[in-house]
Amino acid sequence: MSTEENIPATEPTTEETPAKEETKTEEPKEEESTATFEPIVKLEEVDVKSGEEDEEVLVSLRSKLFIFGETLLDKGTGKKSWRERGIGEAKILRHKEHQRLRVLMRQEKTMKVIANHAVDPRIKLEPNAGSDRSWVWSAFDFAGGELVETVFALRFADSEVADKFKVAFDDAQKEMHSLLEGEDKPGEDGGAAADEAAEALEGLKTSEE
Question: Is the pTM of this model over 0.70?
């Protein structure tokens, strides 16, 4: 029997097993960019005018506006109904130079003009049937860029606010009547001066923005 055969096979002990080194991976550090970029086109600040700069606000009340007429689907059929035009501040404005008064209302989200007509002394605000917080009237409206006879209904939060608008509108009509009477008496010209006041709205360039 050879010497090599008498050597028992031994397994390496734990001490003899080399320890595995733990490898640590370092995450790359995030660096803040210091690069600066110049705009290709420089926009200059533009002063946008609303068209109300030369007017003073006599009253401004939040309300919902409706108009009575044909819808796009019913156009030409003669079928008319009430439809909502928008929510916003119903204002009565007086021009600082020529003192004429008008009703102006914008849609509160888009600022689009939804009512724009002269305070004609011949207009009659009538209570809406079955409501003490709504007024109905007819006027030559210029909201769309041309004079169109329009039937309006304006609904307020409550009767108190509605009455406040009515008082302000009546006062504005009296003021407008006195103003037009000095230019041309409505009783003698059949209301031509009031019509002229309505047409004067065409000269008031009201911006949509």
Answer: no
